[in-house]
Structure formats: structure tokens, C-alpha cells
Amino acid sequence: MTAKRIGMDVPPRRSRLGSTIAALIVGVIVIAASLDLDINWSETGEIPGELLRYGGLMFEHPNWQKLPRALFEMWRSISMAWLGAMLCVVLSIPLGMLAARSVGPAWLRIPLRGLFAVIRAVPEVIIALILLTVTGLTPFTGALALGIAGIGTQGKWVYETIESVQEGASEAVRAAGAGVAEVTRWALWPASAPALMSFALYRFEINIRTSAVLGLVGAGGIGSMLSNYTNYREWDTVGMLLIVVVVVTMIIDWISGALRRRIMEGARARGMGRTN
């Protein structure tokens, strides 16, 4: 027995023409971009062998004599990343709150979101190159670049977190006669603070990785040392530096991840305690 015989309306089959056309357009763009790259495809088969050869040069006998300096430069990179994260968080939290629908007016909210989008579109390396003309080749340049570049993403995380807060606490504070500032302070901030603290630690993790890249353009830290020894083709020292970067980054990621889990689990526990 068909659906039409028993009086049921069968919805029409959804057309796949739009998705098919979109897939074809994307495929044409990818093929056109590949043809325009001037790639010598005959040499791609040699890449695995070259990677093994350079891996042997770097990691077979690492030069541990430069380890003390490498640890010092890594500490400078960590300091750069931490300062950039603090600058980013201090600026992005108030700006992100003003960009939330329940807090900022439209004439302020829309320009702030546009500013965040523009900042996200500019890579950290480009910002560092622009700042180099003003602040020079110093780790402070890298910290400023990390702080400015992080505002775009961090501000977006802040207003999305504020907008995802449940309306119960906000409505209760409004019912008591509070204004926007009081609602933000006593309802939105306590509910969103654990998530925002977790995002701040995650920003620090991102900055640790990015600080090594900024060092390649002269911002200081382990990246500058890595760039110099790569230019000199001292592969044994390059291998030691890569080991230091990977090990220190993994340790910081583990510590930061544990702190973020503790923050979020504590927030959930407090929330359950209130409901009980």
C-alpha cells in the first residue's frame, strides 16, 4: 500500500542541483589553482626520501651543547606568548561583551564585530611585520602582534559565550530593577567566567606555537634561533631546537589542558550545587 492510497502527502524529493553545481565549481577552482602553482610533479616522488635524509641529519646526533641557550630562548618565547595572551584577554573581554546582543547597542555591536572579523583576516606574521617598523626587532614586537591578532578570535569567543548564557539569571536580575551594567555584572559574567578563563588558557596555548613562527621574522625567541641555524645548515642544532620546542609545547599543553578541565568541572559542580 503506497502513501498516496492512504491519503498521505509525500514530500517532493529534494533537488540536488544546487549542491552538484557548488561541488563542480569548487572542483574547477581547485584544479585551476593547482595548475597555476607551477609544480614539478616529477619531483614529488623524491620528497619522502629527502624528508628521511634531513630527519637523519637533524635527529641522529642532535647538538646538545646549545641546549642552555635554547632553553633561554624558549623561555623568551613563552614570556612573549604569555604577555600577548594577557594583552589579548584584557582587551577582548570588555570589547567582546559590548559586542554581545544582550549587552551592547546595535550602533556599537556591529562595528565591533566587523573589527573582530578584520583582525581575524590578518595573520600574526603580517601584523608583526607592520609592527617591526615601529618597535624594531624585539620580543615585545612579537607580544604585541600576538595580543592584537588574538583579539579577533578571542572577542568572537567572548560575545558568543555571553549570548549562549541561559536567560534565567538575567531575567531575575532585570526583574529586580537592574540595568544592563548590573545584569552583565551579576548574571552574565558569573555564568560565563569559567568558559572565558578556559578560552584565555587556550589562547596562551595557541600563542606558544605562534611565537615560534614570529621568531622567524625577527621577533625573537626560539624561532629566531631556529631560523638562524637553519640558514647556516647546522642540522644537528636544528634538530635539538625542534626537540626542545616539541617537548616544552607538549608540557605546557598538558598543564593548560588540566587547568581548563579543572575550571570547567568546577563550574559544572557549582552549577549542580545551586540546582540541588
Cα distance spanning the termini? 53 Å
Q: Report the β-strand fraction as a percent range.
A: under 5%
N-to-C series of helices and strands: HHHHHHHHHH
Largest sheet: none
Helix content: over 70%
**Strand-pairing-aware structural class:** mainly alpha
Average pLDDT? 81
What's the number of extended β-strand segments? Answer: 0
Please, how many helices? 10
Low-confidence stretches: none
Shape assignment: globular
CA gyration radius, whole angstroms: 26 Å
Task: Looking at this protein, list some descriptive labels.
mainly alpha; 276 residues
Written overview of the protein:
The structure is a single chain. By secondary structure, this protein is mainly alpha-helical. Helices cover 77% and strands 0% of the residues. The protein contains ten helices and no strands. It has helices at 17-35, 47-59, 67-98, 106-121, 124-135, 139-163, 167-175, 180-215, 222-231, 235-275. Helix 2 crosses helix 10, helix 6 runs antiparallel to helix 8 (180-215) and helix 7 runs antiparallel to helix 8. The longest helix is centred in the last third of the chain and has 41 residues, at 235-275. The protein starts with 16 loop residues before the first helix and ends with a helix. The mean pLDDT is 81.
